[in-house]
Input
Amino acid sequence: MYLETAIEAARLGAGILLEHIDSEEKSHVSQKQQFDFVTEVDHLAEKSLIEFIHKRHPKHDILAEESGRQFSDSEFQWIIDPLDGTKNYIHGIPAFAVSVALRKGGEIIAGAISDPSRDEIFYADKGGGAFLNGKAISVTDTTDFSKCLLATGFPFRAKHLIQPYLSAFKVLFERISDFRRAGAAALDLAYVAAGRLDGFWEVGLNIWDIAAGALVVEEAGGKVSDLFGEDSHLNTGNIVASNNRIHEEILEPFAAAFGDILQ
Output
């Protein structure tokens, strides 16, 4: 029941994003903080998702990117990102997503990520496996680090971290096949789960960027942690996701690069 709500909510949001992709609302952009932006479509999609979820589960708590937290006494909390990849959406780059996750206590138990541009929806519930458009997905079985394709995201909200970021990036770049930077963390995580990427890392994200994607990766057989191999990624926003086989190799440069700053 909860996974069905997540899937339908993500599809609802995707429809709104597509409906307004060429509209005037998309061009109404405001700045949330330095280098971080929001459109009227973000707000419109979020409002629709919250109304949909509240209709299904009126007593549940909700944490949404644009409107914050709507408190309740429930142990269930929906975590919503109505538009992950806002800058891509603004500029007409077809790499953006809707992410919807459900947390019970401290554990993510259901999640869905919709890619409107490709009509793809990735989803999982705890212990039930991961799926893309109804078909089971799994991470890659790559063990040779030199053959790996990784994704990353630049720390645009934390530009003071650019030097340690570039230091770690350089070490990894010299060891792997190549990097990709699409600009939507939810999709990066979904692609790790679907075996399109071998791994992904980024710093300075928010919980709504990664909650659904982290579960989908784990249910696809992958591993998710913070930069130091611990389980704090949902709290810190510093995340590494992989096929599990290469996880330690991705982590290797982070202690030297970020240890004195983030630990």
In short: The first helix runs from residue 2 to 19. The domain at 145-262 is CATH 3.40.190.80 (D-Maltodextrin-Binding Protein; domain 2). The two ends are 39 Å apart (CA to CA).
